[in-house]
Amino acid sequence: MTINDWLRLMHPALAVIVVFPLIGMVTYFATQTRQRRLAVQAKEKSKIPPVVGKEHVNLGKWLTGSVVGLALVGLTHPIVKTIVKKAATDTPTPQGTVIFIAVMFLFTIGSLVCLYRATAPQKLWRGLFAALSTAGLWILGSQDGVFRRTYEWQVSHYYYGMVAATLMIISLAILPEIYKSKTWRKVHIALNCIALLLFIGQGITGTRDLLEIPLSWQEPFIFSCDFVNKTCGG
Description:
Layout: H1 3-8, H2 10-41, H3 51-87, H4 95-117, H5 123-141, H6 157-173, H7 182-212, H8 219-222
């Protein structure tokens, strides 16, 4: 394996080491929080400690940042690899495009940081930073080199991941509202249930894609195949 192959493994490795354990913990604390809330509403004594809600929120914030960060790592490798490859040809990526991509990475990260720092009363700012973070993520995802599997979008690892990251950003933006309104709480639950299903899909499609991605020295032959019709070598 070359350094390029090792760099390609960073995305799935971080998913297994960081993101999926966080998903399990957040899901567990979400269930505990709901059970305690239902017990309190029924005026029953609950053995679940009150701190479970705070732990759920804190871990949820970590999960959002981890999911968005993982998406950015997954996008960085193919984008940079494409730019480097084109630089060795007669049609290199325009310098303006390279600068734009670099700015978009910083812009997306900066918008997410601002979303974290926006306080509860700042609804407009939270909405704005959430929209900017999401826009930056999708703009980066539209760059050359990113394998989107659009011909099979319904089982695309890319689209599952991008939608899941978007839902995480929205959940973070509406977090202060769930304490004020039952409607927003239901929206929060619905969004995260959808995200959980997408994460399960991510585990399946990500494993499939690892089987399909060749080592760097195998790429010239493998990528000459017709993936739609499943044929190679003419």
